[in-house]
Amino acid sequence: MSTEPEPPSTTENTGPGTPDDAPPAEGSPETGSVAAPADGDGTTPGSAAAGSTPGPAPDDATVPGPDGATVPESAADESARKLSEAEAELAAQKLERERIERRKAEKQGPIPAGTKLSGKAADLLAAVRAVESGEKPTATVFADAEAAPPRAAPEPVRRPQPVAADPVATAPAPDTVEAVRRVLAGGGAPEALAPQVAAALGEGAAEALGEDPWQLLRVPGVRPEQADGFARALLGAQCAPDDERRGRAVTVWLLEQAALAGHTALELPTLTAALARQGVPDADAAVQGTLAEGEALAFQDALEEPGAAPAPVAASEESEESEDADEDNAEGTGPVRVLVGLERYALAEESLADGLARVANALAKETSTPWESAAARASGSTAELIRAVAGHGVVVHTGGEAARAEPAALLAAARSLGVRAFAACHTPDGRRRLAAHLDSADDAADGFVVTLPGLLSGAEGPGRDAEGAFALDLLILLDAPQLDVESAAMVVESLPDGARLVLSGDPALLWSAGPGRVFADLLAARVCPQVASRVPDQGPLGELVSGVGIGELNRVEAPGKEIVIVPVRDAGEAVHRTVQLVSDSVPRAFGIAAGEAVVVTPGHGGAAGTRALNAALKERLNPGPGRFGGFDPGDRIAYSPVPGRTVTGRVVAADAEGLHLSCAGAAVVVPKERVEHSVRHGWALTAHQAVGSRWPAAVVVLPGDAAQVLSRPWVYTAFGRAERHLSVVHGVEQALPAAVAGITAKPRTTRLPVLLRTQVPAAD
Hints:
The protein is built from 28 helices and 21 strands.
């Protein structure tokens, strides 16, 4: 897919996808804008990596092309939908918070490591809303890492099936909101923040905020300089940069920003350096104060690489830490690194490691005769997978889209042996694609293939036993790279003793939207068998995507125009060409309807981001006044029932209850007060929103300023959303092949590999 570019043009960058991604986002920082490529002889390339010449299109556009195919969405079980997923998750979260308190009481304590707002009051409100809408990025302290929306689920715990949550009980009390509103008004802050502050600080929020104005940083989108202005207004002369309350609040805020970027903890030197950049005079004291108040935990982990130098420590602790390091080395324990993390993610990571160790160590490593007979009937890596599952509690399986046939074969073989086996996918479309590999659709129809949210909420799958564990013997979890540390811990904690777990996925895809990199960490720890599929993805698209996965952007022969490049010069042309492709060229030439194609772009903001593209696509495909909060019946939407998870669907109607949607065949009602924050138009998505699903046709938009955020995992994920045809609206010149060749996934700081190596014997 080598091309030589024409001059680029730029558009606005969008920042991390936290509040902005929260509605439909699986989000992380992604951007948008445009430039134009050409072949070495100056002619327009005929395919995104293909040597073919594009067909004619209206307005002289280069047109995409193969045959079309619909994307049926699996219908959800109506009887199991009496309880909404959102309510079930809220109830589960309430139970899990109780578990956290018990865990806190059991722990020995952290491991020792050592005036008015500036500007108008409306500025703060405008800034917060700008961040939540995606017009401006959230904190850029960790902007080089992929951001992700915060998750609501606390430490996972084995629990019974949740019951419906009481909305009145979970919402802040009106008198609490009113008291917070008065405090905000006294400090010149927007009173509209009162419900968010009350929800973040809980009962007694007004008193807590009055005593510690920097607690305003607990509200998503508020930055330290804005909290500083609020504090000056409330405290007057008593407000100082070295206030220990400010140091603690900024420390927690930085750890939250790190979680948005995918880290479950930060190394101490990284954290103290970030505190210094935020104007905290004594960063070491701020960290120690945060640890003393129990708002964060400290850990000492052995460095993974033998001979590596110890992590640097804060100056005030240098002598003490040096002595400790000398003692450790004398005892043969080796150097350590000091990490600091929020309790929520620390406990989730420890819970996950404990659960994986329990499952991995439960089974004797010997192959039983029934499993061996099933393996004998299979071949290749499928037989290898069955044998690995026979003798091990935890197995990792890697491969691309075609490799889904192997876990499907494992599921069928296990059920033929009388094993209570279930497969879980992250999205209804993932469930559809797995079911396509089964010999009989009965396995999917009988509920043996479920969605992960449905499994966790109890709406789908085997249900739970009296102890709260899943009533199953084998769980095959597909699309495992999408697992964040909290979701993974929920799953593992819910497995009964003696059960087997298979984590299957494509390691080249984007990592999870939430903190952690569970699948990559499990691969790196090498504490369980790893079965690599040898089934390649077929056709020009399979060849293109497979090449991207190993860092090569190859020129691919696409005789059926399965891959096409559409060069553009600026953002306006990128939007125009994208609308033309989706609404006219692809349907007219190949019979793929507009509703069967997806547009993938690097970010929500900018002149060629999801907002601009969705506005243009709505005007062309479903024009209307947007009388239901900006939506009309028939609009394609992306809905986020909880932050960090996106499902696509369509608007059906609206009434006093709220906005009525149809998502994967299930009826969903979104209360009107939640529409603005949880629903957005969905013709165009980010790669994180689209991962887990595929469409007959995909149009990937690469505007000029997207060059800053392109990486091999992003390109691999975006190109892989197409089942039969891919169009690339190309404006990033040589940044695309450069990103594929040299920009890999950004590192994330996690503790899971170290925890696993200390608890699970190395795999054979």
